[in-house]
Amino acid sequence: MRMAMIGLGRMGANMSRRLRRGGIEVVGYDRSPEVVEQLAAEAGMVPADSLEDLVERLEAPRLVWVMLPAGEVTEACIERLAALLDPGDVLVDGGNANYHDSQRRAARLAEAGIEFIDAGTSGGVWGLDNGYCLMVGGSETAVERLAPALRVLAPAPDRGWAHVGPVGSGHFTKMVHNGIEYGMMQAMAEGFALLHGKTEFQLDLAQIAELWRHGSVVRSWLLDLSAAALAEDQQLAGVAPVVADSGEGRWTAIEAIDQGVALPVISLSLAMRFASQDREGYANRLLAMMRNAFGGHAVERRSASGDSPAAG
């Protein structure tokens, strides 16, 4: 089997490596020629120096996997591929795309006779060794053609991947997966913050995290990762308290509003990420002024530089 991988970042490169380990030929392209050359030398990937070159190196019917950041980059790549591929070819988007975009792209490609698969992909940088969880949406015919690659990429040939439904369902399932992930991470972080704050007990957070990993109800991969981080540095002094959101938590909250489904934990975990990113703190400054106005409570004033508060 020969297929193409477009986008050789952390995920795309490791997926290419895993495919090669499983005996699948991979034609790879990335905007960075150095990355392409390195992966070709290391894993035996067939290098391509352009999308046109990549398509020419595949025999019809072709199988092309796109592993790029969601948004304009993926949109532009798929538009270019639509003009290069032939009827019967299969195009897979394994990035974190909005499922509405996936449905729209599938309809656009169908006009040219090109099959589209949306593959929600989870596993991160650990996927190379542990395998990836793959949530796949598309037609039965297209997914069957992709199945040999899915069996190699997954943790095992018979588990860790599934054809979950029609086009759009793969990225929809991955969206909800990430929303759940937000809530689990937030709960775990809050629990350890509470443990950290009980200074009178002098709790060893690394010990507790390791304890919970074995036999407890909350054992999980997220706990494994937290235990490893706490074993290295319990104070986390060098880490800024800013948590990014990749977009899927937002899409999950919007979907909940559209459906009228209550998602308090996921929605609040998303709000907490927004709060961690708020360097301006305008709402809290206005709250301080309200409290001062009705109750005469003291207001802390910023220093002239604006970097730290001064009592006032």
Number of helices: 13
The CATH architecture assignment of the largest domain turns out to be 3-Layer(aba) Sandwich
Order of helices and strands: EHEHEHEHEHEHEHEHHHHHHEE
CATH structural class of the largest domain: Alpha Beta
Judged by helices, strands and strand pairing, the structural class is alpha/beta
Tally of discrete structural domains: 3
Which strands sit side by side, in order, in the main sheet?
A: 3-2-1-4-5-6-7-8
CATH topology of the largest domain: Rossmann fold
Give the overall pLDDT as a whole number: 95
Return residue spans where pLDDT drops below 50 for at least 5 consecutive residues: none
CATH superfamily of the largest domain, called what?
NAD(P)-binding Rossmann-like Domain
**Total number of β-strand segments?**
10
Explain what the structure shows.
With 312 residues, this protein is of the alpha/beta class. It has helices spanning 10-21, 33-43, 51-56, 72-84, 99-110, 127-130, 140-153, 169-197, 205-212, 221-232, 248-259, 264-277, 282-295, and strands at 2-6, 25-29, 46-47, 63-66, 90-93, 115-122, 133-137, 161-165, 301-302, 309-310. The strands form 2 sheets. It has an 8-stranded mixed beta sheet, with helices on both faces. Strands 9-10 form a two-stranded antiparallel ribbon. α5 links the parallel β5 (90-93) and β6 (115-122). α8 packs across α11 and α8 (169-197) crosses α12. The protein is globular and about 75 Å long.
Compact description:
This protein is an alpha/beta fold and 312 residues long. It is built from 13 helices and 10 strands. The model has no long low-confidence stretch (mean pLDDT 95).
